[in-house]
Amino acid sequence: MNILVCISHVPDTTAKINFTADGTALDPAGVQFVINPYDEFGLTKALHIKEAQGATITALNVGGPETEPTLRKALAIGADQAVRINATPTDAITVAKSIKNHIQANAYDLIICGQESIDYNGQQVPAMLAALLEMPMVNACVGLNIDGNMATATAEIDGGHATYTASLPMVIGGKKGLVEEKDLRIPNMRGIMTARTKPLSVEEGQNGGNTAPQSFRKPASKSSVKMVAPDQVNELVRLLHEESKSI
Amino acid sequence: MILVFVESWNNQFKKASFEAVSYARTWADMAGCGVKAVVSNDASNPSSLAQYGADEISTLNLASTGAGIASQLAAMVAGAKGVVVAGTAVGKTLAPTLAAMVDGALSTNTTSTPSALEPVVVERGAFSSKGIETLALSGGLPIVSFVPNAIGIVEKAGSGTVTNADASGKDLLTVGEVSVASGKVALPEAEVVVSAGRGLKGPENWGMIEELADVLGAATACSKPVSDIGWRPHSEHVGQTGIQVNPNLYIAIGISGAIQHLAGVSASKTIVAINTDPEAPFFKAADYGIVGDAFDVVPRLIEELRAFKAAN
Question: N or C end of chain A: which has fewer CB within 10 A?
């Protein structure tokens, strides 16, 4: 079984986000980059499948050379090989087209993406990829069972869950639930050493884009919190009604 | 025209669906064109969409999945100046699938109506609510998926002609068991969310949280540690790797306010934090705060709100 795990290279959750002076891009200065948390759940799920039934896991990222440490980390966690598609990930459709070309040139049974990346929060690439490849796709996937050529997947839907079946190959937009937080693996020394010698190949991807960011700004900071004494809850109710008009 | 997908559940339109029609009306008025709403043919009272601005209401036999519906819309976009989809669970699959099928320009997580046309420019949330992006939909058919509750419902009459459409959809998934909690407000669409964390000390103490949610007509939510230790289901986990919410009012009880949690809630219009620790980071992100014991404050809040609801 060949599994492709798509990995985004994103600012760490706790990173302070700043934009360049002209406001048109993220300022990467001082930002620690990590494997996108949603993708880490996907990578760990791929490892579980490999351990249960055998698989080759390829980790893929679309980006410049600066993203290679993130791919090496995926190798250290347990992916067998990595591919960096050398392209500027301007928007999801461009990224999806690049990945599509790679998938068409290689036979994958299962493509696991995180449902979204925590930088641009698009939640677009997995569905676009599936549409371009005419494969089934399950978004917000919180459970996946592979039996031969068939997959059973559970997804979060508004207010509940739905279960789907599909035949492989398919695309998953995964999140926590695919595996649990406690299942996530921290690379050990042996993993880090072997990651150095695992293959990391570079392919050329698509550039361009159908959308163009004009500017980024930070949300207006909240005016300072208004404190209410615990024995004056009626005052809170009044504020919620008269001031914020929330109730 | 502006094409808008109108989702229904058990034959009833979702609240976000009315908002989607309102969004389309605003866009269509800027562009000087009409609004065409695409609706399941078993939705009750499709002509009611006219009061939110639908001019043409097209009913059809919808496919079962977001991707299947996208294949139907792809056959209906000829002549459209734009497409609007609410960012529900279905919409989140539908919009990018459609964008890939028609090589369109998509904005998801959108929080504004267009500020310009040619190209269409919208604002959207990025960097887990730490940034706001202004995005130009410069190449191909503009498609907008918006965050439910970010725009609001506006009543504005459209001509509302109902016609039958015929477009067959292609589902690549087989839908099995679907379970949706009945009578509960779905989190992503909720106008009020009551959320609690480890400060509640145990799952047996959630009764008062449910009661408070009940008084407010709110959805219940929880912090990540609480879902990780199994006090509450994962589906209630709000935050970075859980569900992102966008209510008018978010009440956080016994949640410290870790950055991962705030990433999922800071789009809320008004935030109330109740915590015993005056140093809890949530107070920096909140509009109103109470330093106090949840077991003392919440029952009082329920009582005060009941009195308020009775008087108003």
Answer: N
In eight-state DSSP terms, residue A219 is P
State the pLDDT at residue A74.
Answer: 98
A139 lies within 8 A of chain B by CB: yes
Whole-model pTM: value is 0.95
Q: What is the mean pLDDT of chain B?
A: 95
Cross-chain residue pair B180–A159, CB shorter than 8 Å = yes
* pLDDT for B182 beyond 80: no
Does some domain include residue A54?
A: yes
Q: What is the DSSP string of B141-162?
A: SEEEEE-TTSS---------EE
- Asked whether residue A117 is assigned to any structural domain, the reply reads yes
- Render pLDDT for B5-24 as a digit per residue (tens, 0 to 9): 999 999 999 989 999 999 99
SS3 content of chain B, % helix, strand, coil (to 5): 35, 30, 40
Of the pLDDT bands very low, low, confident and very high (cuts 50, 70, 90), residue B186 is confident
CATH of the domain at A195: 3.40.50.620
Q: Given pLDDT bands bounded at 50, 70 and 90, which one contains residue B235?
A: confident
Contact call for A241 and B287, based on CB within 8 A:
no
Q: What range does the domain containing A96 cover?
A: 2-219
Homologous superfamily in CATH for domain B2-164: HUPs (3.40.50.620)
* CATH code, B187-311: 3.40.50.1220
Which of the 8 DSSP states describes residue A182?
G
* Structure-block tokens of residue A138: 């399950």
B180 touches chain A (CB under 8 A): yes
**Tokens 């999140």 sit at which residue?**
A175
Which residues are within 8 A (CB) of A134 and not within 5 positions of it... i.e. 6 or more apart? B172
